[in-house]
Design goal:
By secondary structure, the protein is an all-alpha fold. Helix content is 57%, strand content 1%. The chain contains 13 helices and 2 strands; from the N terminus they run αααααααααααββαα. It has helices at 3-19, 22-28, 34-38, 46-56, 58-72, 76-87, 98-118, 141-144, 148-152, 168-172, 174-192, 220-236, 242-264, and strands at 199-200, 210-211. Helix 5 runs antiparallel to helix 11 (174-192). The protein is flat and about 70 Å long.
Length: 280
């Protein structure tokens, strides 16, 4: 077998067996049931397999870009995201909430905005974040990397106080922009598969994932819980004093934190789970 045929065969096998979500592929990219009926990977275009594999691994790609971003820009701003991955995202079952991805996207937009603002000419190169008495003089790289603006990640990308010297705004925020693009692609993937609008996590591992439904499709127990929650938010909570609100919010935060760490503990789960849905 020629080398290119072998390479094509092993590449297709690798993409299909290790990188592609089969359910997503069958529902989105095999609508004519070519692969489902024939089982022949050669009848599926290689571009379709590559695209399906990339879409299936979008979440992992975003995690990888977060760590690469920190490796390329070692500062406090880029450190926040890898820490959020290690201490929350990869520990959440079965996957992070859509609220996490909204928070990360807004965080990156804010970080890019602040980096743009720092580049404006009314900010001095020295002293740090100064507006007057500017000292536009060359500074040794050994001293620059110890300054607070470099530690935070809001340094100049051009001028005498830039390092590497005069790389420009585009190269300075290139990895931030790439991460933002991947986050937009991830949201598109989650919306396309229904996970952004309809899938929710729950503190109870037996109820995760749960699916968002219309109010008229919910069970009586779910309707009563929603009504009780709305009554508390609209009537009881506004009438509390400051101390009672503080105690309530503290208790809610403690419950959420304890529930999250409880989900991380190893436990035995029977193969046949209890049906929590009263509609069936």
């Amino acid at each position: 077998m020629p080398f290119m045929h072998k390479f094509n065969f092993y590449l297709r096998q690798l993409l299909w067996q290790n990188c592609t979500n089969k359910l997503i592929f069958y529902s989105l990219y095999d609508q004519s049931s070519i692969l489902m009926n024939n089982g022949n990977l050669y009848k599926v275009p290689i571009s379709t397999l590559i695209y399906a594999a990339v879409v299936s691994q979008t979440e992992n790609i975003v995690f990888a870009v977060m760590f690469i971003n920190f490796a390329m820009n070692a500062n406090l701003i880029s450190l926040v995201l890898p820490l959020s991955v290690c201490f929350y995202a990869i520990l959440e079952n079965p996957k992070p909430s859509y609220k996490y991805w909204k928070l990360v996207t807004n965080y990156m937009l804010l970080a890019i905005l602040l980096k743009f603002i720092v580049q404006l000419p009314f900010f001095c190169s020295s002293p740090v974040f100064g507006f007057w008495n500017c000292q536009e003089q060359d500074i040794e790289p050994e001293l620059l990397v110890r300054r607070i603006d470099f530690i935070i990640g809001l340094q100049k990308f051009s001028g005498p106080a830039s390092y590497p010297r005069d790389i420009g705004i585009f190269r300075g925020i290139m990895w931030d922009l790439l991460l933002l693009i991947m986050l937009v692609n991830l949201k598109s993937y989650l919306v396309m598969t229904g996970q952004w609008h309809f899938v929710r996590n729950d503190n109870n591992i037996h109820k995760t994932p749960k699916y968002k439904t219309r109010f008229d499709q919910k069970s009586e127990r779910e309707k009563q819980e929603l009504k009780a929650e709305a009554d508390f938010d609209n009537n009881q909570y506004p009438n509390m004093n400051i101390f009672q609100k503080f105690v309530h919010n503290l208790g809610t935060a403690a419950t959420d934190i304890s529930g999250f760490f409880f989900k991380l503990q190893p436990r035995y789960m029977p193969r046949v789970q209890t049906n929590w849905d009263m509609r069936t």
